[in-house]
Write a structure and sequence with these properties.
The complex is a heterodimer of chains A (170) and B (271). Chain A has 170 residues and is of the alpha+beta class. Chain A has one domain. Chain A contains four helices and six strands; from the N terminus they run H-H-E-E-E-H-H-E-E-E. In chain A, strands 1, 2, 3, 4, 5 and 6 form a six-stranded antiparallel β-sheet that branches. Chain A is elongated, with a radius of gyration of 21 Å. The N and C termini of chain A lie far apart (67 Å). Chain B is mainly α and 271 residues long. In chain B, helix 1 (13-37) packs antiparallel against helix 4 and helix 6 packs antiparallel against helix 7. Chain B has one domain (13-268). Chain B is flat and about 55 Å long. The chains are: A alpha+beta (170), B mainly alpha (271).
Chain lengths: 170, 271
């Protein structure tokens, strides 16, 4: 008898791949989303959000001198020991997850809304502050950008800017 | 080792329970120790400071409660208490109190990381914890065997679904069927990009690898037909998760899924 229940379960599961159901949203649902697992890992290739940031120093005449945009994308080295302890890589993955959420929040934002009110915007801005303070201790101003990158198997084939933050003093 | 296919194979329930408790304790222990080391990222210039994240919490009273719980000192105590509960799981086995605490503290940790720290591994960790909690609640109020049966089936269905769904959605995507998705994801992975001469840059090898994983994942429900098949499936799954760890850095996925294997083998013996 059990086998029929199991077969029925996987048939229903297969049907959910074809029939889409409406997405239910809410602040608590977002925070407790681990109770509703989504097992569709790495399924679609497309534009991926990437964070870029730059800093400027103020000259004596008041002019801002900007450095090149820095790509803030986590990269770490492989190591077998990391199967037991992998703090740096996991923090890097969490950082990129936050960038994905930031992109999703921007996407869902009603027309005319200020993205600076988003928690994800504030977290990204705070992260950029920390990175720039560490890399360029003398900087006076900062700015960051969310760019969408489309990759092929060999290179990035298209990029567009989704959002550029206002220039803000440190 | 040769498997004997002539006699029915059933994994003993006590053995399955013990194996799952040990594997889960290892998985959650690794996560908890990592959280303890990550605390600088949750303070001052770190990305995950609570003073910003608290704005996610919709109700004022809950925000106040979490403000207290998520002070660096209390959060460290919470993580340390989790380690003690996991040690007790190893030495004394599961009970309602320790599993109830691990379940509640897991929810608190997930909220601290905006609902999920690492996505899939958080989902699967919660699945195993929910199964363990279910087993403890039913055992407390009714029959322990019924409780464990419910817990094992819940974990098994979620675990097998994870492979089945993950494989099926890839099967529906042309970029997975031609292998290009695998190369693109590996290039953008945290350990990427692939070196210029890497074997997965060869389109036909990438396509072969992609099809091997897709077919194996889609066939996951067949593992439930026999406990020996489930054992073979779990060995391949362990290799698969190791490769995911090696290329994508996802060590938590390896342990979180490994903790579900005793339930899968046990359930496969019940059909």
């Amino acid at each position: 008898m059990t086998i029929y229940w199991v077969i029925a379960y996987f048939l229903v599961l297969a049907l959910t791949l074809i029939y889409k159901t409406p997405v239910v949203r809410g602040p608590w649902l977002f925070l407790l989303r681990s109770f509703f697992p989504n097992w569709k890992f790495f399924h679609a290739v497309g534009y991926v959000p990437h964070l870029y940031a730059r800093s400027a120093t103020t000259q004596a005449n008041g002019e801002l001198v900007w450095i090149e945009w820095a790509h803030l994308y986590p990269r770490t080295q492989q190591n077998l020991w990391q199967i037991f302890h992998n703090t740096e890589t996991n923090l890097g993955l969490a950082q990129q997850n936050l960038i994905d959420h930031f992109w999703a929040d921007l996407n869902d934002l009603p027309e005319g809304s200020d993205p600076r009110n988003l928690v994800s915007f504030k977290m990204v801005a705070h992260f950029v502050d920390g990175v720039l303070k560490d890399r360029y201790p003398e900087h006076t101003h900062k700015q960051f950008e969310l760019r969408m990158l489309l990759d092929s198997t060999t290179e990035t084939v298209h990029t567009h800017v989704m959002m550029t933050s206002p220039v803000e003093p440190r | 080792m040769m498997l004997d296919w002539s006699t029915p194979y059933i994994l003993n329930m006590e053995m399955a329970i013990r194996a799952m408790e040990l594997l889960f304790a290892l998985s959650a222990g690794i996560q908890t120790l990592e959280y303890l080391r990550m605390q600088p990222a949750m303070q001052k210039d770190g990305m995950w400071i609570w003073s910003i994240q608290r704005q996610d919490i919709p109700s004022p009273w809950m925000r106040q409660l979490l403000d207290t719980l998520f002070t660096p000192k209390l959060f460290s105590i919470l993580l340390s208490a989790r380690l003690l509960a996991l040690i007790s799981l190893v030495t004394h086995g599961s009970n309602l109190l320790s599993i109830g605490f691990l379940f509640a503290s897991n929810i608190a940790i997930l909220i601290r990381w905006r609902g999920a720290f690492n996505g899939g591994s958080d989902f699967m960790t919660l699945v195993v914890l929910t199964g363990l909690f279910m087993a403890q609640i039913v055992s407390y109020f009714s029959d322990p065997e019924l409780g464990w049966r419910a817990g094992f089936w819940y974990i098994t269905l979620q675990s097998i679904s994870s492979y089945f769904l993950s494989g099926s959605v890839k099967l529906l995507r042309p970029e997975w069927r031609n292998g290009s998705a695998m190369t693109i994801f590996l290039n953008s992975a945290i350990h990427g990009p692939l070196s210029a001469g890497h074997w997965l840059r060869k389109p036909w090898l990438a396509a072969l690898g992609a099809w091997a994983f897709i077919l194996w994942e889609c066939a996951a429900p067949l593992a439930l037909l026999d406990a020996r098949l489930a054992l073979i499936f779990c060995k391949i799954a362990a290799l698969f998760h190791f490769l995911v760890f090696w290329y994508f850095g996802l060590n938590r996925f390896f342990w979180a899924w490994l903790a579900t294997f005793p339930a899968i083998v046990w359930c496969a013996g019940q059909i």
